[in-house]
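If your schedule permits, I should be very grateful for your opinion on a structural question. I would ask you to consider whether the tokens describe a fold that such a sequence might reasonably adopt. Thank you for your consideration; the sequence and its tokens are set out here.
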Amino acid sequence: MPVSASRMKLYPGGSIRSPEWLALREEILARAGGRCEGTPQFPACRAVNAEPHPETRSKVVLTIAHMDQHPGHNDPSNLRALCQRCHNAWDAPYRRVNASITHHRKRGQPDFFAEAIHG
């Protein structure tokens, strides 16, 4: 999920462009062998970075996902290299909840949607 500027400080070095984060990113990509590590929705994805995705045919760009959705939890066990399809599928429930929370806050309504996702 895209990270807001206010949450950037939770990354090693305070930025997704810091040397610390880039080194951690390279560690995760190396562990993945240049392939998508998959999610519970798509456990056997294994799409190859920079090649056409076997399902979507779009060029694969591996990203690093925080599986618990917390950018400050940078333990390698919480990070996975994911293709766009897997990353978007993993983040979708969080986006829906966040959109509902934001909508209700703007309207001055209580937050009825603060629940754990994927968990």
